[in-house]
Each structure stands twice: as C-alpha cells, then as structure tokens.
Amino acid sequence: MSAATIANAEGRAAAASVTPELQQEIEQFLYHESRLLDDRKYEEWYALLADDLHYFMPTRYNRLRREGDKEFSGANEAAFFDEDKAAIAVRIRRLNTGKAWAEDPPSRTRHMVSNVVVRPLNDREYNVDCYYLLYRSRLEREVEIFVGMRHDLIRRAPNDSGFVVARRTIILDQAVLMARNLSFFF
Amino acid sequence: MTVFPTFSFLPGIQTLRVWHPRGPGEIEVWAWALVERDSPPEVKEAVRIGVLRTFSAGGIFEQDDGENWLEIQKVLRGYMARRQKLNLGMGLGHARTDHREFPGKINNVYGEEAARGFYSRWAAMISGEV
Fold this sequence. Notes:
Oligomer: heterodimer
Order of helices and strands of chain A: HHHEEHEEEE
Number of helices of chain A: 4
Shape of chain B: globular
Helix content of chain A: 10-25%
Radius of gyration of chain B: 18 Å
Helix content of chain B: 25-40%
Largest sheet of chain A: 6 strands, mixed
Number of helices of chain B: 4
Strand order of the largest sheet of chain A: 2-1-6-5-4-3
Largest sheet of chain B: 4 strands, antiparallel
Distance between the termini of chain B: 22 Å
Order of helices and strands of chain B: EEEEHHHH
Shape of chain A: globular
C-alpha cells in the first residue's frame, strides 16, 4: 500500500461542500476526543467509538522510491494495531487493573491535531484526514514524540458530541518504532 | 526459547524474534507471527491478530516488557548494581540432562538456565575456546 492509497485524497471537488460550520464542528470533535485521552478519561473516549470501529495502524518499511507500493503493511500483514471495539475495551480494562505497568504511573500525553481535511461521504459520514503530533512523557524523564497522519471516518451520532469515530487508520512517520511500546491510543 | 545468540521463539504465541544489537544501550527488535503454511486463512488471521494483541509493541503483554527491558538496564547502571556480580543463580543445580527426546540441559522455564547458557557460550566464544 502506498501513502496515497492509505490517505484519503479522493473527492477534491467535494471541498466546496464543506462549510466553515462543518469544518468547525468536526475539528471541535477531534479536539474534544484528544482532550479526553489526554485527561485519561478512557471510558468517555470509548463512548465516542462506533460499534463497527476499525482501529488500524500498519507497520512501515524503509523502501526505495520504486518500491513505494511496499512502504506500508497490507490488510493481513503485520500491524501495530488492528482492533475492533471489543479489543479496545480489553485495552481500557487492562489500564484499570493496577497491573498495567507500562501505564502505571500513567504516561503524560498531549494529542495535537492539525491540517484537518474534511470530505463528506454522505449526509452523515465524513472522511477526515489530519496530521497529528503526539507528545508522551513517561516516568521521571522519558520523552517520546510521534508524528504522522490519521485517516478517520467520522459519523454523526446521537450523543453529546454529535459524532463517533467509525474508522481510524494511523500512519506513523517512522520505519523502526523508536518507542519502548505503544501503550496509549492515537 | 533462544537459539544463540539472537534468534528467539515464543511457544504458544507463535512469534519469532531477531534481536539486533545496535550498539551499547540499544537493541532493535524484528518480530514475525509464525503460521502453519497449510492452515486455513481464518486460522492464519487469528494467529496474526493474537500476536499483535499480545506480544508486539502495542500488545497488552509486551507493553510492560518494553518497560522491563529499559528499566532493568537502567537499574544495572546504578552505583550499587555495579558493585555486585550479576546474579544468574535462579534454578541453578536443578537442570537435568536425561530427557528421552530432548538433548541438552532442561530446567524449569521460570529460572535462569537460558541466561547461564547464553553467557557461558558467549564467554567461550569471546575467549577463543570454540
């Protein structure tokens, strides 16, 4: 898979149909969701996930330009995350066991989101691409920074936030993961 | 299980590892999920998902291992730890060599037989004995 096929570049013409109000609405949702994660309100964040969630983070390889189509792992290959909603529930339950040592003491995270591009799929679903910068500080002096792109499918829902996340594909701009683990959510 | 020096396999979980030393204080882990070639696609998929959810960088068990690997090394660099000899005595003297099928020394998995084997072999090679 190439970067272009993973990122949702389709629908340039649809840009005109994205009103400033819609852009604002979706950005506010992304900020709210980031804030819940950074405030460690995992159950509240979980409530913003659709029942048919696919949360996917492929691995990435250092390839020559001519092998660009082999840069990302495919659907049935190695992945950092390939989760449905039930698997996310297990991960959250783990955090509350008192034995999840990678997150106890918990990481200090800050999810920053920018370059938000909204493309309506229909009247209630939106392809939303964004760039993220995730700062993570662990224990007394460990710091890790993750930078990349997210491709989300955001769906209108009858909750206080107005939306749920139905699909999240996380692209990390690293070939070898330079972190000790991935014990947090993107 | 490790085949000296850096090729490992985790039975039951079906993950293969190669641990690449990247200089002092650093290691790069290459990981695979191992499936039986002739197993049905859904079994292969279940193994793949099983490995990534348990023993991978984001796996719910290996997350904590990442912590262990780094923190143990940090502690060993401390003043007190540097004044001690590394203790690899767990299970010492309990190995057996009389298994009907399997050759070599066999000991309880919760012990340091593997570490003793690793360092003995390393010491022999580094001192030119093999």
